[in-house]
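Our consortium's second objective concerns turning raw sequence data into structural hypotheses that experimental partners can test. To show how far this objective has progressed, the report includes one record in full. It was chosen at random from the queue rather than selected for favorable results. The single chain below, 547 residues long, was entered without modification.
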Amino acid sequence: MTEGPLIVQSDKTLLLEVDHEQFQECRNEIAPFAELERSPEHIHTYRITDLGLWNAGAAGYDAEQVVDVLIRFSRFPVAHGLLVGVAETMARYGRISIDSHPAHGLVLSTAEPTILTEVLRSKKVQPLVGDQIDSGTVKVHPSERGRLKQVLIALGWPAEDRAGYVDGESHNIDLRTEDWEIRDYQQQAVSGFLAGGSGVVVLPCGSGKTIVGAAAMAELGATTLILVTNTVAARQWKAELLRRTSLTEEEIGEYSGARKQVRPVTIATYQVLTTRRNGEYPHLDLFDARDWGLIVYDEVHLLPAPVFRFTADIQARRRLGLTATLIREDGREKDVFSLIGPKRYDAPWREIEAQGWIAPADCTEVRVSLSDTDRTVYAMAEFDDRYRLAAHAPDKVRVVRVLLDRHDGEQVLIIGQYLDQLEELASQLDVPLVTGKTPVKERERLFGAFREGDVNVLVVSKVANFSVDLPEATVAIQISGTFGSRQEEAQRLGRVLRPKSDGRTAHFYTIVTRETVDADFAAKRQRFLAEQGYAYSIVDADDLLLG
């Protein structure tokens, strides 16, 4: 027994003592391969997963490093079986690979014939491969490269894709760095991506993921298809590319509900690509509209299922995923790993903050109570109605007013889930409201007014969760969220993490109704940020209102 902060259990859960002097060091060391599950005040619970270990392996970690971390920080001896399991799981990545064979084209190969025998017994693998060449090699149908990787990872054999990529149509793109320079971590992210050919870069909101995309485009010098969440994001990408690169207006096309331009660099929205007509997705033809050399997936954790399906068909194209979190609420992280690529670079949020590239943030959970009458209505409601009732607690409006007074003169975003709640709040506060119903031109006008300081407070729905660049925002007040969405919590904090010119701290408030499902969902949403090192202080609404 030692005095370490970590208890490693045989079921692959890790218990980390928050108050221990080595807490921060240990948290940083286990974060690359373990996922945070629960984060109450004193003990945080992590779990080691196969995918976490494979992502760590793809990012350059080996089993020896992971085992050393577990042994070094563990308070008690670590079960030998667990350490062996970690080593064996990590060793599975890359022991079977997809390669380009000079005589036979695309092949699945391994130095261990028994592995090939095992996977070829799968009825899901058999339709995806052709004739067996030798004991360790089998032909692969070129069109099935992506689907084969999906099936193999489900079988527990994540394949390393070494078959290479087509260069695509060349198009010269230069970075224009007269008044800025690429940051070290951005260059490391680009280098990690280029070394792998395809994969995902994970960076905090506000840390310049667009710059990583632009730099990758410049390095490859190829036509590029960029997929984004919405039209506002598309236009922000275009503005950033015009500012940071040699690209001109005529070279950048927008492919959205409003425009259908296909140019050497084309920015398309997920929404238009997944529009169905007569059961078909006519706009998915955009993937074949040009000989793309690079496809960029912005906010890759939101990639819709139809885009996954088409991505499986274009595995010969280089693919770059950009995101602040690899968490997907639909559980399809393995599909991101298989079809976009493994994690190539991941920078801890606090590390980027320490370098001054994102603002320090203070996170506060304000707890309100339901009145006796509302508590009775809540208790008698069906389960599906309880979150709405808890999220609409009347005291939340009073708390918002107090917080606005506290941060008078600052740029404040009030964010919520329910449109009726947001409409009522915007009306009571006499401030603008931005929702999915707001026309794109009006959204851009309001966001522009917010950036210029003509508007100090905006009430926004979840349309502002992603790819909305509002660097002036210093305060975010969340009054309701999408149930237990960890990715949403991360994105909402990200709205205020852009570095401030005066170095001030950003503030993120989430208002939660105690002893309801609202509190349960809030605890789930906060897990990712806790993993990144952000602690929520708890404040009682009564103390806030009286203060």
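The partners drew two points from this record. The chain has a mean pLDDT of 87. The chain has four domains: 6-92, 97-161, 184-352, 359-546. Both points have been shared with the crystallography group to help prioritize constructs.
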